[in-house]
Amino acid sequence: MERGTLSVLRQTTKGPCCNFQKWDGTSHRSEYIPADQVPFVEANIARYRDFQSVVDQYVDLVGEQSRQERLAGGKKKRPTQTSASPKKPKSKN
């Protein structure tokens, strides 16, 4: 599973020779891929895209579940208003 893109550099009798480009977190990296290795790299890129699709679906489901739980709790209850000064008990006289 790899993240990146393939760009065809040239066609040969064995197939396309490609340049594999990816971001490594600090800079872009390029790697030459010979024609016989292109199908393997394409498969790895496809696996990453499938994985990313599953992760996106999971995030959507968990987000929806979180919203439903939040909304099921109803409106936020507000505390009752209290006086700023404490009340003194009335005398019995």
Please give a structural write-up.
With 93 residues, this protein is an alpha+beta fold. It has a domain at 5-69. 38% of the residues lie in helices and 25% in strands. It contains 1 helix and 3 strands, in the order E-E-E-H. The chain has one helix spanning 38-72, and strands at 5-12, 15-23, 28-33. It has a 3-stranded antiparallel sheet with strand order 1-2-3, covered by helices on one side. Strand 1 and strand 2 form a beta hairpin. It is rod-shaped, with a radius of gyration of 31 Å. The mean pLDDT is 87.
Q: How many E strands?
A: 3
pLDDT under 50 segments (min length 5)? none
Mean model confidence by pLDDT: 87
Shape: rod-shaped
Termini separation: 87 Å
Question: What is the rounded Rg?
Answer: 31 Å
Largest sheet: 3 strands, antiparallel
Task: Give the helix tally.
Answer: 1
Main sheet: strand order: 1-2-3
Order of helices and strands: EEEH
Helix content: 25-40%
Strand content: 15-25%
Q: Which structural class fits the helix and strand makeup?
A: alpha+beta
Please render the helix and strand layout as text.
Layout: E1 5-12, E2 15-23, E3 28-33, H1 38-72
Antiparallel strand pairs: 1-2, 2-3
